[in-house]
Write a structure and sequence with these properties.
This protein has 144 residues and is α/β, with parallel strands linked by helices. It contains six helices and seven strands, in the order E-H-H-E-E-E-H-H-E-H-E-H-E. The protein has a five-stranded parallel sheet with strand order 5-2-1-6-7, sandwiched between helices. A two-stranded antiparallel ribbon has the order 3-4. Helix 1 runs parallel beside helix 4 and helix 5 packs parallel to helix 6. The chain is globular, with a radius of gyration of 16 Å.
Length: 144
């Protein structure tokens, strides 16, 4: 079984581009297993009274983003085995940690739509994953 980690953010078009890249893998229906991952970014949050909230509290109260649900559904409809996960933390660290812990064969992500010059550089999470992963990273084009 070929195992893929597919991190998604709330952007549906980027999530779909990455899911389409996974679905296009040879024998995806029979030989591919996907972990679709949404990471709620850890950050300092202040409430309206100036008090401090833990982002973990917000994470616990929030629902999974539609991009996570829709990506999992898209892949399942194509007969691909899917596990959906939500995590809290620094996205690049969580992605790399889960890739290692789950011993995935590759990571499939989608870059942001950029100008011709902007395409030279990926976003910071994507770039960090590419530079720090010990596994192959595929970047799906979501520019259409």
């Amino acid at each position: 079984m070929y195992r893929v980690l597919l991190p998604v953010d709330p952007d549906e078009s980027r999530a779909k581009a990455a899911a389409e890249a996974v679905a296009a893998l040879p024998n995806a229906e029979d030989d591919v297993e996907v972990i679709v991952l949404s990471v709620f970014q850890k950050r300092d949050v202040q409430d309206l009274d100036g008090g401090r909230l833990e982002s973990e509290e917000l994470f616990a109260q929030s629902e999974a983003p539609e991009s996570l649900k829709n990506t999992a559904k898209f892949l399942e409809e194509r007969g691909i085995k899917v596990a959906a996960r939500r995590e809290h933390g620094d996205p690049k660290d969580v992605i790399l940690d889960i890739a290692d812990a789950e011993d995935v064969d590759s990571i499939v992500m989608s870059g942001r739509k950029r100008s011709a010059v902007g395409k030279v550089m990926f976003g910071s999470v994507t770039q960090s994953v590419i530079l720090n992963s010990s596994r192959p990273v595929t970047i799906a084009d979501a520019s259409e």
